[in-house]
Design a protein that fits this description.
This protein has 83 residues and is of the alpha+beta class. The chain has a single domain (3-81), classed as Alpha-Beta Plaits, CATH 3.30.70.20. Strand 2 and strand 3 (31-33) form a beta hairpin. The strands form two sheets. Strands 1-4 form a two-stranded antiparallel sheet. A two-stranded antiparallel ribbon has the order 2-3. It is built from two helices and four strands. The protein has helices at 49-53, 69-81; strands at residues 3-5, 24-26, 31-33, 59-61.
Length: 83
């Protein structure tokens, strides 16, 4: 499942540089996560780095983009293979 930044985001800028896939970018009002690039850090780290550094706990699992661990790993391999 990809992650989602809620409207509780305070635009503190700490999550964006932590994303190894470049899935986080500044949106119109808050940061946003591109679900096609989000692997919840599978393939890179044990835990999602954006969740770890977020000071307001506004990053949640996106209910509109449910993915298994295997699907996240396959996405990581696709993204990593494209570099």
């Amino acid at each position: 499942m990809a992650l989602l930044i809620t409207d509780e985001c305070i635009n503190c800028d700490v999550c964006e540089p932590e994303c190894p896939n470049g899935a986080i970018s500044q949106g119109d009002e808050t940061y946003e996560i591109d679900p096609s690039l989000c692997t919840e850090c599978v393939g890179h780290y044990e835990t999602a780095q954006c969740v770890e550094v977020c000071p307001v706990d506004c990053i949640i699992k996106d209910p509109n983009h449910e993915e298994s661990e295997d699907a996240l790993r396959a996405k990581f391999e696709r993204i990593a293979g494209g570099n």
